[in-house]
Amino acid sequence: MTDPVDTKAWKALTAHHAAVSSTTLRDLFSADDTRFDTFQLKAAGLFLDYSKNHITSETVDLLLQLAEESNVKRHFERMFTGDIVNPTEGRPSLHTALRNRGPEPVMVEGRDVMPDVKAVLERLRVFSERVREGSWTGFTGKAITDVVNIGIGGSDLGPLMAVEALAPFAHERLTLHFVSNVDGSHLHSTLKKINPETTLFIVASKTFSTQETLTNAHSARRWFLDSAAGEEDVTKHFVALSTNADAVSAFGIDTQNMFGFWDWVGGRYSLWSAIGLPVILSIGMDRFEQFLQGAYDMDNHARTAPLSENMPVMLALLTVWYNNFWQAHSHLIAPYDQYLHRFPAYLQQLTMESNGKSVHVDGSPVQSATGPVVWGEPGTNGQHAYFQLLHQGTHMIPADFIMAIESLNPMGIHQDLLMANCFAQSEALMMGKNKEELATEMRAAGASDEEIERLSGHRTFAGNRPSNTLLVQQVTPHALGALIALYEHKVFVEAAIWDINPFDQWGVELGKQLAKSIHAQIDKAQTVTSHDASTNGLINRALKFKNVLA
Ligand SMILES: O=P(O)(O)OC[C@H]1O[C@H](O)[C@H](O)[C@@H](O)[C@@H]1O
């Protein structure tokens, strides 16, 4: 594969950037009153306005040429049809098979995986219905009231985000809890709220070897056994979601209580698999299927829509445009919906674990920036915290505003105010306020010319800051499925352009290795000299704090 910087489109985009970078968004809008109609897309119930970006039709043509030269369509086909798109682990990446609602088979090593996918979904349906209707009972015969998901990373962020996002559809009797951090306070504060007789623990771990999850699961099991009559009661209160049946048995969970998935499902793409059990318990299997359908609709869009009408492709190209040509390496996600409050955190793993890479698929070093830093909070809260920097700071931070038009909890003027704030922010970021506008405003409020002069640097806004706005009718299961799949495919297209592998995560391994050896040293409680001076110093100081070192 050609390095993206060596493609014709990349070179043309570099020249194009130099030619257009001084044109402001205000200029672009005053020169063309059809921008909003030109730069919009619809897909799977979502509406995207991308007109508030530093683009002209020529920019879009060049970006589309880059997508062509990067064989984006072929990359999609390879992923959807089960090719080894994760060569460092020798695996396909088939989260799309998990939500395939169509009749087409999906082949892995010559075998259709769809029957297995459907069989697990069926088992999840039966199990979740029993828990939801109250016929799955605990060791004293009572119905389950609390479900604790113990998992981390992809085995936590997805189900947690989706359970929160779909809270209006939640089962009335069931309260969902999520324990991820190995910090004992996380488990402790959860255990304080629940009763062992009516709690179901879900131990969620693809590998079933993750230190945090196993530590939390063992502690939860011990806590449970303190109240239960005996080991045999564990079966009624612990289930596992994993690809590793041996490790599940070794932990002491009957594999009849295990819901499996497969190594061709990446952790951060696993929400659609058995890892979605907390979501299924909360909203029910019928709604979970609507969630899968939303993602499937977006999959079909990504796979079949021409590049120029393809929403994930366009979002990816805009990220490449800013990241690689405008040197804007930070990306804000601003969902104007309180229930989407964990969506930015979810996208952090999806995007930063996928595209935080410095080498191409063949292992050679990249020559341009890859995945940006992704962050955010729900609106309107962010406005009262860090939006100052977005409006007047020295960085250009492209933003995605996500607005659900209808609230699932309509209350007076709340939703209209939320919407007004969302639209006001993207307008303010783009239009800014020049000195003349400020002067008119201040004069009307009685300010003197001297005062206007003194404050104009502080109170003007340069504007010219780009954003996308995504509209959705309501955050329903279908809409959420489509939204997540949109970002999954966006990340995939970016990786295809940068020629990096978005499906491995070797970068998390070194810290895990070192933590193991440092844990052994902390346990030994002897002065440590095997690390660098800072790390030795910190361990030894900590041992002194613990009072275990002379
Ligand atoms: O599901 P598990 O095997 O427990 O993995 C949990 C998480 O930990 C790993 O270190 C990876 O960084 C994540 O991609 C993964 O989702």
UniProtKB/TrEMBL annotation:
A GO CC term assigned to this protein in UniProt: cytosol
Entry keywords, A to Z: Cytoplasm, Gluconeogenesis, Glycolysis, Isomerase
Cellular localization per UniProt: Cytoplasm
Major location (coarse): cytoplasm
Pathway(s) this gene product operates in, as recorded in its UniProt entry: Carbohydrate degradation; glycolysis; D-glyceraldehyde 3-phosphate and glycerone phosphate from D-glucose: step 2/4; Carbohydrate biosynthesis; gluconeogenesis
Active site: E353, H384, K512
UniProt GO molecular function: carbohydrate derivative binding; glucose-6-phosphate isomerase activity; monosaccharide binding
Statement: the UniProt record of this protein carries the keyword Cytoplasm: yes
Top EC class for this record: isomerase
Pfam families xref list: PGI
GO biological process, one term: glycolytic process
Recorded catalytic activity of this chain's protein: alpha-D-glucose 6-phosphate = beta-D-fructose 6-phosphate
Keyword check for Isomerase: yes
Entry's EC annotation: 5.3.1.9
CDD domains for the chain: SIS_PGI_1, SIS_PGI_2
Family of this protein: Belongs to the GPI family.
UniProt xrefs under PANTHER family: GLUCOSE-6-PHOSPHATE ISOMERASE (PTHR11469)
Function as written in the Swiss-Prot or TrEMBL entry: Catalyzes the reversible isomerization of glucose-6-phosphate to fructose-6-phosphate.
Protein name (record): Glucose-6-phosphate isomerase
Biological source species: Granulosicoccus antarcticus IMCC3135
